[in-house]
C-alpha cells in the first residue's frame, strides 16, 4: 500500500505539473490571441491610414493636375485670342488697302484722258502755245518738275536752240525755261511785226474771204494782245 500511495502521489504531482503546463500554455495562447488581435487591429488601422493617405495624395495630385491643366488651357486661350486679334488686325489692314485701291481705281476711271503735249518751233505764237501747254499740264496734273521736263521735250527747231543758253541744272526749272522762251519768242517783241503785216495784208490769189478774215483776225489778236477782246473786235 505504501508503494501505491507513493505512486499516486507521484502521479498527482505529474498531473499537477501537466495541468500547470496546460494552464500556462492556455495563458500563453490567450496572450498570443490578444497580441494577434492587437496586431491585426494595428495592421487594419495602418492599412486604413495608408489608404487615407493614398486617397489624400491622389486628391492632391488630381487637384494639382487640374490646376495645371486649367492654367495651361487659360494660357492657350490667351495665346489663341492674341493670334486671332493679330489676324483680325491684318485682315482689317488688307481690307483698308483694298478699299484704297478700289477708291483710286474709281477716281481714275473718272479722270479725263491724258492730253498729248503740243510742240513749239518758234514760228508760231508763244502766247498761244503757252496757253495750250498750261491747259494740257493742268489736265494731266503735272508738277512743276514734270511740266518743265515736258516743256523742254516739246521744243523743236529754233525754239530748241534756246536750251543751249540754259545751264544743265536749270533745264528742269520751269521758271528759268519759260523766261528764256519768253525773252526769245515773247509776243511783245513781235507786236510791231504783226502790226506791219496787218497793215500790208491783202487778199492772196485763190484765198477766200473767210480765209482772209480768219488771218486778219489772227494778226489783230497777235498785234494787240494786250487789248481786251471787245476792243479788238470793235
TrEMBL record:
Keywords: Coiled coil
Coiled-coil stretches noted in the UniProt entry, renumbered to this chain: 47-104
Name of the molecule in the record: Retrotransposon gag domain-containing protein
UniProt organism field: Araneus ventricosus (Orbweaver spider)
Amino acid at each position: 500500500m505504501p508503494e501505491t500511495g507513493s505512486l499516486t502521489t507521484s502521479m498527482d504531482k505529474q498531473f499537477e505539473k501537466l495541468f500547470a503546463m496546460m494552464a500556462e500554455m492556455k495563458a500563453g495562447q490567450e496572450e498570443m490571441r490578444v497580441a494577434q488581435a492587437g496586431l491585426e487591429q494595428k495592421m487594419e488601422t495602418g492599412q486604413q491610414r495608408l489608404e487615407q493617405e493614398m486617397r489624400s495624395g491622389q486628391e492632391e495630385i488630381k487637384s494639382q493636375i487640374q490646376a495645371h491643366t486649367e492654367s495651361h488651357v487659360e494660357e492657350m486661350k490667351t495665346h489663341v485670342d492674341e493670334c486671332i486679334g493679330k489676324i483680325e488686325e491684318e485682315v482689317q489692314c488688307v481690307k483698308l488697302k483694298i478699299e484704297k485701291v478700289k477708291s483710286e481705281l474709281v477716281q481714275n476711271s473718272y479722270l479725263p484722258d491724258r492730253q498729248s503735249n503740243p510742240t513749239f518751233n518758234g514760228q508760231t505764237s508763244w502766247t498761244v502755245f503757252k496757253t495750250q501747254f498750261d491747259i494740257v499740264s493742268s489736265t494731266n496734273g503735272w508738277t512743276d518738275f514734270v511740266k518743265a521736263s515736258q516743256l523742254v521735250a516739246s521744243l523743236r527747231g529754233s525754239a530748241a536752240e534756246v536750251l543751249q543758253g540754259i545751264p544743265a541744272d536749270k533745264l528742269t526749272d520751269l521758271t528759268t525755261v519759260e523766261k528764256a522762251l519768253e525773252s526769245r519768242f515773247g509776243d511783245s517783241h513781235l507786236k510791231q511785226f504783226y502790226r506791219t503785216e496787218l497793215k500790208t495784208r491783202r487778199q492772196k490769189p485763190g484765198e477766200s474771204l473767210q480765209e482772209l478774215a480768219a488771218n486778219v483776225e489772227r494778226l489783230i489778236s497777235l498785234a494787240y494782245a494786250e487789248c481786251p477782246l471787245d476792243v479788238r473786235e470793235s
